[in-house]
Specification:
Helices cover 18% and strands 39% of the residues. By secondary structure, it is of the alpha+beta class. Strands 1, 2, 3, 4, 5, 6, 7 and 8 form an eight-stranded mixed β-sheet that branches. Helix 2 (127-140) packs across helix 3 (142-149). The longest helix is centred in the C-terminal third of the chain and has 14 residues, at 127-140. The protein starts with 6 loop residues before the first strand and ends with a helix.
């Protein structure tokens, strides 16, 4: 995928939910990221705060052919989902991004295409585009930015 100018769709949604393991409230952001051609990616960012630690788990769905009429429900043959955790990492100041298995808690439905393991993601040709997309989310999604950086 070529590097392009990205924009978070203003119709993104934020839901307040409770963690399955401990009932701690968290926010989940769901949104589209667009480029000059329309749909570019779908993202889910779950913003947790367990024991004073703020982290976010971000899954990004990427596709080589977005259906303009139904981008979420009609996946292209190359659709994949990448995942990462963003938060404090032992031995580092601030937050860091760590590649993880994608959408591990989500149902296996066509929306996600192929959920990439960490090793699969490391070898995927769209990895650079994925990290560019995560950077865009971290810088431009107000819920995720405020959660991780306090801004």
């Amino acid at each position: 995928m070529p590097l392009v100018e990205l924009a978070i769709d203003p119709d993104r949604q934020v839901k307040s939910l409770a963690c399955d393991c401990c009932e701690t409230p968290f926010d989940r952001v769901t949104g589209f990221i667009n480029n000059e051609n329309g749909a570019y990616a779908i993202y889910f960012a779950s913003c947790y705060h367990h024991d004073g630690v703020h982290d976010a788990w971000i899954d990004v769905i990427m596709d080589d052919h977005w259906d303009a009429d139904a981008p979420a429900t009609r996946p292209g043959a190359g659709r994949v989902t990448f995942g990462c955790r963003v938060g404090p990492v032992e031995g580092h100041d601030g937050v860091a991004c760590s590649l993880v298995g994608a959408a591990r808690l989500a149902a296996d439905i066509p929306l996600y295409g192929r959920k990439l393991s960490r090793d699969e993601a490391l070898g995927h040709p769209w990895l650079v585009a994925y990290w560019d997309t995560v950077d865009h989310i971290l810088e431009n999604d107000p819920t995720v930015s405020a959660h991780l950086y306090g801004v």
